[in-house]
Structures are given as structure tokens and as C-alpha cells.
Design a protein that fits this description.
- By secondary structure, the chain is mainly beta.
- Helix content is 3%, strand content 39%.
- It contains two helices and 24 strands.
- Strands 2-1-24-23 form a four-stranded antiparallel β-sheet.
- Strand 14 and strand 15 form a beta hairpin.
- The radius of gyration is 20 Å and the shape is globular.
Length: 333
């Protein structure tokens, strides 16, 4: 599996700074990466390579979870890694201000804006017979035993045991939760319709999205001010994508009047054939179409088709995109 990135790169979160030339020119960083570029698999110039299992991204940083025996994390982008021992890490979740690491026996949250020697917050993980979180194994951040983790103090929030949360996506000020039964709940800021309750009111507590009742969902996602989910292909005719919320830059894949105005939103979707489609705001090349144009229509990222690659995972940063792909021959071998 190989990881690629495209879009905003001002802090080297996709490609590291270019080396200083013989003429003494200062190091420079290519700010806009308009075509998928393979991520480096080496750390600190040591020459030692590693396999990346998972990526999370914020505006200025990328955190990669290594999939080899060390199971530690590597941070690329603005500033250096906090003073955390990450060996044995099973999951990672990053925001612009904090990095959360999950281990078999604990969860730690580190402040990325300070050079602290100890985490800002931590909790021990122990068996909980009646948990609100329904996970197959380990921790699936931002979900945690009995609740979920956010990027701001107090960091941990309780969830009702009746929800049986399977996964959780956090937007700019709202949350989208998927239960083990396939129901979708949302709460938080609702001023852009991102909660899907038919109005613009905010919600303090999780509320089921009634428009989706009776259609089990398999996954949920959130942008800054919009939300999305995919129906369960095994329980229904399935595989359908549902979107709602802010559409200023066409990030819902619906006609938009605001493409000429600046925004920070986009969407991406991996098809069941392994093709990658993107749409929304494209000012930094984050759509991967080798242009800086925005689009309110889903368009296939031709790079992966041309390279005979099948996309198996995709991660949206604020202004960039990361995709994991394998050769199509390997996918069917």
C-alpha cells in the first residue's frame, strides 16, 4: 500500500522542503501540490523506511501511524513532534492544537503548541461491561471507552450507553455519530444545516437524523460545515451517498452559486471500483485534477486510473487530501 498527498503544502506536510542548492538559495517549499505525490517513507533522513497504516491531517500537519512492529507515529508539517513516547500506539487523532494517541492501556492528548514534557490529558483504559462505544477491538479515535475525545478542554465527553457508537466524525463545530445498528446521530453547531434536522438550530445532545431512519448506514464523515454518510450495501440496495450542510464551494456535489468566493471545504468519495472522485474548493490543488479550479460536480482523479491503481482509503485535510492505493493487479491477486 502506497500513500499519496495533494493540495496545501506550505508546512511540508505532503512534501518536505527542497534541499539547499549549491548557490546558497534558501530552502523552499512548494505550497500547492496539484497532482497526487507519493509520501516519503523515511524518517529524519535516517534512511530507514516504514509502512504507513493510517493517516490523519489538520490544517498544518499530518500524522502517520506506522504499521510495522514499532507501531509508533510520525508527524510532518508545522513544528516538531511533542515529547511523547509513541511506541505501541494503536491509533492517532490530530487537530491544529492537539495530538491524541491511543495505546492498549491508555489514551494521551498532547499540546502541539507547547513543548510540554507531559500530556495535557490522559485516561487509563480498562474493561467496561456496559459501554456506549461498540468497537470490534481497541480504540477508534475520536471515540474512546464510554465517550469521545475532542481537541479542546476538557477533551473527554461522555456518551450514553444506549447509543452503542460505532464511529464518530468531528466537524468544525458539530459531530456525526454512527451507531452499531446503522443509525446516524448529530449534535453541535447547526447554523449551516450540517446537522440534517431540517433547520439551522444547534443541538446540545445527540439527536437522530430522522430523514435517514430505516436506512442503515455503514460510515459517516464530516467537513467543516457539512456532513455525509453512506448506506450499508449489505443490508439495503446500498452504497448510496447522502450529503447535507454548507455548499458554498460545491462540496456537496450539488450546484453552487458561491464557487467564486473563497472557502475551505471539499469532499471526496472512494468508489467500489477503487476510483477516487473529488469536488468542492480547489484553490490549493486539493482535488487532484492538476488544476486550481473548484467544482460542484464529482470528478474522477485520473492519476490513479492512469497508474492502474485502486484507491483503498482516503483522508481529507482542511486544504489537502491523502489517499492510499495499491496496484490493481495486487488487489485481485
Amino acid at each position: 500500500m502506497r500513500w499519496f498527498g495533494f493540495g496545501f503544502n506550505a508546512f511540508g506536510q505532503i512534501c518536505a522542503q527542497k534541499e539547499k542548492s549549491d548557490e546558497g538559495e534558501a530552502n523552499t517549499t512548494e505550497v500547492k501540490i496539484i497532482s497526487p505525490t507519493e509520501l516519503s517513507t523515511t524518517v529524519d533522513g535516517s534512511g530507514c523506511s516504514f509502512k504507513t497504516r493510517k493517516i490523519q491531517a489538520s490544517w498544518s500537519r499530518r500524522v502517520s501511524l506506522r504499521g510495522d512492529g514499532d507501531r509508533c507515529v510520525f508527524l510532518a508539517g508545522f513544528k516538531s513532534f511533542p515529547s511523547a513516547e509513541s511506541s505501541g500506539c494503536t491509533d492517532a487523532f490530530i487537530s491544529e492544537s492537539h495530538l491524541t494517541l491511543a495505546f492498549q492501556d491508555r489514551i494521551e492528548t498532547w499540546n502541539l503548541q507547547e513543548e510540554d514534557k507531559t500530556p495535557s490529558w490522559n485516561m487509563e483504559i480498562s474493561a467496561q461491561p456496559e459501554s456506549s462505544v461498540s468497537l470490534p477491538a481497541g480504540v477508534n479515535l475520536p471515540l474512546a471507552p464510554g465517550g469521545y475525545i475532542t481537541s479542546k478542554p476538557p477533551f473527554y465527553y461522555h456518551l450514553s450507553a444506549q447509543l452503542k457508537a460505532k464511529s464518530l466524525a468531528l466537524g468544525g463545530g458539530h459531530a456525526v455519530l454512527l451507531t452499531a445498528a446503522g443509525d446516524v446521530y448529530t449534535w453541535g453547531l447547526g447554523s449551516h444545516g450540517q446537522l440534517g434536522h431540517g433547520g439551522l438550530a444547534s443541538e446540545e445532545k445527540p439527536r437522530v437524523v430522522e430523514a435517514l431512519c430505516g436506512m442503515p448506514m455503514s460510515s459517516v464523515a464530516s467537513g467543516g460545515w457539512h456532513s455525509a454518510c453512506i448506506s450499508d450495501i449489505f443490508l439495503t440496495e446500498g452504497g448510496d451517498l447522502y450529503v447535507w450542510g454548507w455548499n458554498e464551494s460545491g462540496q456537496l456535489g450539488l450546484p453552487s452559486r458561491g464557487l467564486w468566493r473563497a472557502s475551505q471545504h471539499k469532499s471526496s468519495q472512494q468508489s467500489d471500483t477503487g476510483d477516487l472522485y473529488t469536488w468542492g474548493w480547489g484553490e490549493y490543488g486539493q482535488l487532484g485534477h492538476q488544476t486550481l479550479m473548484s467544482s460542484d460536480e464529482p470528478q474522477r482523479v485520473e492519476f490513479f486510473k492512469d497508474e492502474q491503481m485502486r484507491v483503498i482509503d482516503v483522508v481529507c485535510g482542511t486544504w489537502n487530501t491523502f489517499a492510499a492505493a495499491i496496484k490493481k493487479d495486487d488487489a485481485y491477486s
